[in-house]
Amino acid sequence: MEEISVAVSIHTEDEKDEPCLNQDTSLLEFVRSEEISIASGEDKGELLLDEHSDHTYAAKEQPFENEKTCTLEFDCHADFFLAPLEGTEQQITQEIEIYAVNETHHEHEEACLSPFQTLCNLLQVSISDPYILSCTDTEICIVELYQISCREMSIKLSVIIDSNFCAKIYVHRKEVSRDNDIWTGLPTKYDSVEFVTKLLSCLSCFSVCVGNPDEEYQYITPVGCGISDKVANTIRSYREGNFSATSGTLSYGSTIRSVHCSLLVKGKRCSQCLADRRMLRKRHQRAVERHNSPPTNFVHKTVKHENMSRSNLIEKINQQRDEIKSMSSEIEKLKRKCKQEILQDGVTLDLVQNIELKDLMSTCNDEFKKAYPDPNSVQRLFWEQQCKFETFGKNGMRWHPMIIRWCLYMRNKSAKAYDAMRDSGFIQLPSARTLFDYSHYTKSALGFQPDVTKMLHEEAKKLENYKNYVGLLFDEIRIKEDLVYDKHTGELIGYCDLDSISNQIMNLEKAVNDSKPTQVAKFMLVIMVRGITTNLKFPFAGFATNSITADFLYPIFWKAVSILECSVKLKVLFCTCDGASANRKFFQLHKLDNSREPVYFTKNPHDENRNLYFISDVPHLLKTARNCLSNSYSHKKTRQLWKREKDISWMHLVRLFEEHCEQDIYSPCPKLSRTHIDLTAFSYMKVNLAAQILSGTVANALEHFYDESVSETVCFIRHFNRFFDCLNVRSLFEGRNKRNPDLDPYTDVNDNRLEWLTTSFLGYFEEWRQNIENRNIAATATQKAAMTLSRQTLDGLKISVKSITECVKFMLGSGADFILTHHFNQDPLEQHFGHYRHKSGANNNPTVYDVRNMMTTLRAVGSQALQPRRGNISVNRENIPVDNTKLPRRR
């Protein structure tokens, strides 16, 4: 125990003006008012230090005259004197009074402090190594350091206690989560030294998670950067800075730590960092394998340049340069070798032999060109591909897109026949696995598919100026009511599935009518994009329906228009469909006035300067007109067509056939047969039968063999014959070859055929209506309606004539050189339906699954798909041009 001597001045009674200990003056002011000097040696006073009050007292070198000295011995770390007091009784009493005043002063100060400041003062006494205490008016900070050297240190952790006595722990400047085990059993408020001491005691039981400080992993990511998760695409770990940390005998700088690291653990590292350690080990192993493996050869890789890094692109350019240089050297070497071989072993031909050899080679070449004169013919292409296969083999063969399309079409017809033809060895064809990648480039699904839109957009990029005007064809095909399990998606295919808006409407109707929640589809609605001046025929979307209605068709149609106009950048000018009641009602939904005339156009919302025209399919109109004629005094006998006091009767045609065509050797109508006359349910649907019965040949025969009684029947046939010729122009040269100017392409907006259609043809039916109204007989409205064509047929004729004439004029005014009106018909869609029914043989009622897959295949086949010979459209067997456009393939 250190012994300290203190000299205390005791004033006499004469010194009443001096400050007294019993007064209210503080002890500190009293002591500082005295003359104090530090004593040294035996002749001087000793130093007294009270650590609790931070007060220092010192005696003078020489005591005053009336003063006496007493010696006190005490422990400087005790709250009171431990040694016995020496001196006179008066001196001892005076010293006790000084201590009592000092204690009273401290109690007064403590009563004025807040609980938070009191805790700060108490912690200043209680906190010891290894912690450092720092206090402010609002928080208490307790810090633990990493001791690197005498001059270097870094913060290991810190405990922050705010003015509300809530504690937070920060490890390496990152807050410890409340889910950490360290908080288990600890209080929520730390308002006493006991609770703070308990927290620090718990901290001593935990250690800082070391993460993954291995030097071999630090190159994976730089300091401050993270490593992303390949599945969730989020940051899973990061590399923290250098804290010069230590953990036992382990010293480390930077470490890779999980973003969910516990920071404080009872062990070496937390479970999250341990999981990241396995990930880092795998990445390091892959990096080592890449480093030890030979450099990647980018020359023959098929990776897109947009998916390669800059360093890889530079490496590829360098490799290509080296390969070109190497190949050039190899070519020069082979040239020198061939030249040397020719000089050594070559045979020199004389003039005659040289001429004969040239003639032989030219003869073979001429024979080949004579067999296939067109260098772009499919026959020559097929022969070249077979020769190429023999040279490169099956592994090095790259088939031409036209061969791929043709093989897809053949395999779609019959997979067994295609495999037998390929396995026979007579010809070499692509394997089924190769074809699968092309036919399944897009997902087989109903509705509007993004991949299909992208595929159509690639086709649209090739079209410029007026060639990007298209039309929409839509119709339904009857399918089998069946459910098919899709093994790829696990779905049952076959239920009704329309557009999202239409599905909601359908569900609402089912809820109102208490019908079945799901219905098996009976029809398939197919939407096709048809080019006006191009050969574009693209099946855009399909929907499984239970017989479409106008309210369901409306949102589907306009969504298709929106996608084509906005995403694909095609301009929709018209839409074509048959005369079904749902389609007619769909047209009427766009009516803006109360007129009785049918609607044939509406404003295009994507272009205010362009209308969108409605067209009723011309071949269907021809069939309905023929059907009305067939029921006039024949078949169902529901009509008695009459005009200008004469009948228009089917019996006139029956009489012509039976008297002059059926038995005569030289028939005036060679194409006319009993099938044309005696119509059945199947023959009612055939367009060619209707076109041949309403032809100019039949009209000429009637006019030649009979009197004026058949004149109105002849006039009826001639009008529809020219109507069909004008609106079914299919080729640039058909009119010239058949010597029929009505089949010539349209090249002038003032073409007289356009005027005839809008004036003479439509005026013929207006005159017919007036004749019936003015007929002087007592007839009901139903009887008068039976004297002319059906209202639906007449409306369809008006819609089609007005719309097609407007479209022809618009396209010619937009820059088109010529227009073929066949492109406004629905024949491509009928051809498409024929492929559905011919899949894998006769399949008149395909399922939704079949139709869905066939649409995907036919998008890849394109124009290679030949229309069926016995289909409901005219067969066009013109040579197919060779298309070198690369087909997209599934990767």
UniProtKB/TrEMBL annotation:
Residues 446-589 form the Transposable element P transposase-like RNase H domain. InterPro entries: TNP-like_GBD, TNP-like_RNaseH_C, TNP-like_RNaseH_N. Residues 620-736 form the Transposable element P transposase-like GTP-binding insertion domain. GO terms for molecular function: nucleotidyltransferase activity. It holds the Pfam family TNP-like_RNaseH_N. Its EC number is 2.7.7.-. Keywords: Coiled coil, Nucleotidyltransferase, Transferase. Residues 822-848 form the Transposable element P transposase-like RNase H C-terminal domain. It is an enzyme of class 2 (transferase). Residues 310-344 form a coiled coil. PANTHER family: THAP DOMAIN CONTAINING 9, THAP DOMAIN-CONTAINING PROTEIN 6. This is THAP9.
